[in-house]
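tl;dr need the bound structure. longer version: we got a ligand (S-adenosylmethionine) that a collaborator sent over and nobodys looked at where it sits. i said id run it. heres the input, straight from their email, havent touched it
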Amino acid sequence: MADEREHRDRTVRPPDWDAQAACFDEEPDHGLRDPVVRAAWAARLRSWLPGDPADVLDLGCGTGSLSLLAAEQGHRVTAVDLSPAMTERARAKLAGHTAEVLCGPAEDPPVAERRFDVVLVRHVLWTLPDQARVLRHWRDLLRPGGRFVLVEGVWGDPYPVGVPAHRLTALLGPLTVGARVERLSGDPLLWGKAVTDERYAVVAGV
Ligand SMILES: C[S@@+](CC[C@H](N)C(=O)[O-])C[C@H]1O[C@@H](n2cnc3c(N)ncnc32)[C@H](O)[C@@H]1O
């Protein structure tokens, strides 16, 4: 059974993100339009990000909802997404903030030699092949003392997709120190509803 699930995880075809951009923010945890959901994510993010203003790289930023929260908390944000339609929305959302939105691949973001204090990634790693290689590259984008903030999970019925926490922490083991898993399924305020599937964040230093 576990093997079947792992096989499906590896072979799942990612959605057409450009096509999804127009309605993406309708999901409570995507658009964060409900002030209660927004406050729940803002509180979690504040606890995961450094206390002082930091350079945050949000990879696969989508419409920029988490980037906006980070910018509102005083961080300097670089947001990257492969989908032109998503980046267009993220640019509009982040206008007027200390934030830059770039169109490009999360696996090899177009940031040249720049280095960051935080690599923030929510609900993106599961779509990427060769996650071990991608995580190594992201580790190299972090300054010494920097951290990963990765929000992932396993969703969908009857054919779940995603990255279980045990697999992600195993991948992070050789790259990070002090990886901490925070379980998020039990907090309905984050999702705008009760959920029973696996949802979590990993905060890990380098
Ligand atoms: C489920 S959405 C998550 C968006 C955002 N991180 C959030 O939590 O609201 C996945 C996003 O990853 C982007 N994406 C998928 N594959 C990508 C890749 N290889 N490089 C950059 N972005 C990618 C998609 O365009 C989409 O915006």
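gonna send this back to them w/ a short note. The chain has one domain: 2-205.
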